[in-house]
Amino acid sequence: MKNRILQVMQREGLTPAKFAAAIDIQRSAVSHITTGRNNPSLDVIMKILEKYPYIDPDWLIYGKGNMMRKNTPPVQTDLFSLAPLITPKVTAAPENRREIKAEKPVVTIKQPVQEPVIVKKNESKNVTKIMLFYSDNTFETFIPEKINKD
Questions:
Q1: Domains, the chain, ranges and CATH?
Q2: Hey, which of 11, 47, 88, 117 has its CA 20 to 30 A from 79?
Q3: Is the sign of the CA dihedral 5, 52, 11, 63 positive or negative?
Q4: Which residues in the chain land under pLDDT 50?
Q5: Secondary element (H or E) of residue 32
């Protein structure tokens, strides 16, 4: 069976590592099979047949008949040989569209409106400190000089 698996790998143009990845098994399992150390398990055989449905199960398991199933179209392995099979049907319809110019979005930040505080002048109150806060997160403090009343 190892020779038939090697034929499948050769037909697909795969290295043992890529073949293992293609059928979702460990690379070591493929290595053991191809060196003759182990026979493939039923799980490995099923994965090969699922991945490559054109392979005749009797050929893979027993070595009877041909590699390819009857009435199965040949599988082409490269992208360019598939081009004639995948021909998109294109109709030449005029395209009516208008290009839309994207504009920068305008971002507005609404700050809450603060009502001014009206302080009635009371002769018993004196200004002791004035602090100014700037948009760059700095501030200044002004302390008025004491007024001497002589």
A1: 2-78 (1.10.260.40)
A2: 47
A3: positive
A4: 150
A5: helix 27-35
